[in-house]
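Whether sequence alone determines local backbone shape is best considered at the level of individual chains. The sequence in question and its structure tokens are set out directly beneath this paragraph.

***
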Amino acid sequence: MSLVSRRRSLIGGGAMELLGGLIPLVLGGAGVLLLYQLLQRVRQRAYIQDAVVVITGASSGLGKECARAFHAAGARLILCGRDRARLQELVQELTEAADGKRKTYSPSIVTFDLSDTETVASVAEEILRCHGHVDVLINNAGVSYRGDVLTTRVEVHKEVMGINYFGSVALTQAILPSMVQRRSGHIAVISSVQGKIAIPFRSAYAASKHATQAFFDCLRAEVEQYGVSVSVISPGYIRTSLSVNAVTGDGSRYGVQDKNTAEGRDPREVAEAVLRAVGRKRKDVLLAGPLPTLAVYIRTLCPPLFFKLMASRARKEQRPKED
């Protein structure tokens, strides 16, 4: 055998030996990962099963899908919203969908207007009477906005802030004392990627979500000592009627399904992600695509570039409805 052939043989043998040593490590690592994921799922199921879960804005959109996901996971739901008839339809659907494979409960209903913060205290009492306590509060109800700062009335900013921010704050503060007393509980809020970045023609909405992010970040730090968890979940665009029902600068209904919204994530997928985030007690979750996620990092690491990109976007959007 020539010297070259011998070297090739030695190299080939070494490579095979190295590969043979790596295979068990790779398989072992994969096994550990699978075991970890299995334990996470078991923990999630145990956390949600039999838990009393309150969902606001449950009659449509993401709230409705969250109701389906948490009901299937065995939660004792308290569905909240303004439209009692739609909530009753949802209760009937969930009750009929029970297959007997997992223990489920017929949901309770509490109807109220989240923007009416004066009535939230009495509403919280009604919610607590359903099962005596609340394990998980999911602040989901909200309204979107389309308009330019120049022509938007201050009353519109107040309306959006009243629902998206003050409503969630009021309900959270009304339920929180019972959680602190029990030294147990979980508060989640559905924010938005626009709670981390701001884009043109969304001033009222982005401001309400920025405020939401700040409040619940503060809350998380303050209540950890009492055994209460806080999750801020920030989705990107979701295929719901949020943009159709959005308010405009003069307070009228927007009535248009934005292209970005129409091409957004399936609300069922987002609801499952919310279920996982709550079940695993994740503190801050960004459920956005690559570009919005990149924008969050650019805003943090290179603000001048972000500002230029947003100014360019604003110039391209001649009117908010051309979104």
Strands lie at 52-55, 76-81, 108-111, 136-139, 145-146, 185-190, 228-235, 247-248, 284-287.
